[in-house]
Amino acid sequence: MQVLKDEVRNSIHHAALIEFQEKGFKNASMRSIAERGGMTVGNLYRYFASKEDLFYAVISPAYHKIIELTQEPFDNMDNPKEVQQFFEHLADRIMTINHEHRRELLILIDGSIGTRFEHAIEEITLLVEKKIRDQVFTKLKEKGIHIQDDFFARVLSVSLIEGMKVILKHYEDGIKMKLLIHQFIHYQLGDLKSRWL
């Protein structure tokens, strides 16, 4: 029985990232990934039973970090300093995830059709919508601010996620990306921030 080596797994991971980013899941092939990784297709299948299993192994760490980010509470935001710190924390976390998993995020955005991640962006959008509705709007209502329609949480969440997608796809330079993410978050949530104070 062949010992599964970390360097072989790393080679497969790197080859799969390139293949999935260039072709997306649907058009990627295990043969091409094996060639990129410098191995036979048979050897690749010893590590991953299917293209779907390989895709999941490559993409899931980035996906789970984004999900974790959507689960962070909007607590301790009762004064301008706390709100500013939260926005900076949010931008920093997005930048860290992007730095660690840029290719995976781009694949998740544009190359996941035909996989269990096909609707990941919508799932993330729904989690953000729920967070806005359940935490942000609740806090605003506690402060006596009337929200005309809870559907506004949907509008905000879609615009946040779509805006972040555009920024992540457009910028590779970390400094420019971070500045734009900060600006974008402040633009999107700045009015809500001022209503809390």
From TrEMBL:
<dbReference type="GO" id="GO:0003700">
    <property type="term" value="F:DNA-binding transcription factor activity"/>
</dbReference>
<feature type="DNA-binding region" description="H-T-H motif">
    <location>
        <begin position="29"/>
        <end position="48"/>
    </location>
</feature>
<dbReference type="InterPro" id="IPR009057">
    <property type="entry name" value="Homeodomain-like_sf"/>
</dbReference>
<dbReference type="InterPro" id="IPR001647">
    <property type="entry name" value="HTH_TetR"/>
</dbReference>
<protein>
    <submittedName>
        <fullName>Transcriptional regulator, TetR family</fullName>
    </submittedName>
</protein>
<feature type="domain" description="HTH tetR-type">
    <location>
        <begin position="6"/>
        <end position="66"/>
    </location>
</feature>
<dbReference type="GO" id="GO:0000976">
    <property type="term" value="F:transcription cis-regulatory region binding"/>
</dbReference>
<dbReference type="InterPro" id="IPR050109">
    <property type="entry name" value="HTH-type_TetR-like_transc_reg"/>
</dbReference>
<keyword id="KW-0238">DNA-binding</keyword>
<dbReference type="Pfam" id="PF00440">
    <property type="entry name" value="TetR_N"/>
</dbReference>
